[in-house]
User: What shape does this take?
Amino acid sequence: MKAVRIHSYGGPEVLVYEDAPRPHPGEGEVLVRVHASGINPVDWKIREGHMETMLRHTLPLVLGWDVSGVVEELGPGVSGLKTGDEVYSRPDISRDGAYADFIVIRESEVSLKPKSIDHIHSAALSLSALTAWQTLFDAAGLAAGQRVLIHGVAGGVGHIAVQLAKWKGARVIGTAAARNHEFVRKLGVDQIIDYDTERFETAVRPVDVILDTQGGVTQERSWKVLKPGGILVSISSPPSAEIAATHGVRQAFVFTQPNAEQLAEIATLVDGEKLKVTVETVLALSDAMKAQELSARGHTRGKIVLRVL
Ligand SMILES: NC(=O)c1ccc[n+]([C@@H]2O[C@H](COP(=O)([O-])OP(=O)(O)OC[C@H]3O[C@@H](n4cnc5c(N)ncnc54)[C@H](OP(=O)(O)O)[C@@H]3O)[C@@H](O)[C@H]2O)c1
Assistant: This one.
């Protein structure tokens, strides 16, 4: 099969589009014919070697952990899926990914894809939507009537998070560059902050929940925007428990986990027209280098996706 792999960590030039062995599904696993593979910042962070000690990958490694495709073959013991099923997944990030014609995924990480969108859009959805779900609902327990500040609301995670928060009945404040304001207004953001010209900590009344996609100074400046007892959930860098305590608030760091049940709920929301994923750019599998360079600029509106089939 064709795949984009790395044989060493480094810059975009270590991505190699090449022939690679087609994997075989083991016990409880399925082989998926990949139709599309979503791009995420974690792809180039892993390529650069930043997560080497955490994930201990064996090289060569196929990158890409956002996939939509069709079940091609079942491993022993698989009972909930059949060949020909159209599926999507955010598979285990410690194994080979989906910048390839085929990927082997555990059945427990795979869900039927939304029926109302194509493979390009469902490959754009799984990782970002699971992240938004696990931060807003599992970690923060966001409830109707609460106020949530979402940093980077136009990005892959942010543009899904605003819709999930609105679906839950929350009021959403989001930070974005001016060129994205119309986009995020249409997604339902109630108060938009231009992070280039406004200080969010003075423009925003205290909130119950902050979703921090940025880390660094954005995270440092965020503490004072929380109500007493509120929670800052970061997906960028682990917040300090000591600093949270001095502000009388809570903190959490989320590293997104595969979850087929949550993906099934997300697919229902998409098919019920409650959730829409925006794809800014579609590139060929062989253009993975270009796709990662675009992602690494840090200003993606919605998602970038590789078309594989
Ligand atoms: N822990 C986890 O499991 C997990 C899961 C998913 C993602 N992440 C991480 O979370 C981060 C965001 O992921 P993503 O997929 O949403 O990335 P993305 O699609 O690249 O979006 C990032 C967004 O950040 C915005 N931005 C840039 N500078 C900003 C600033 N100073 N203040 C506010 N917004 C700013 C950009 O919007 P503008 O164009 O409007 O500037 C862009 O849309 C990445 O670092 C990623 O690695 C972690």
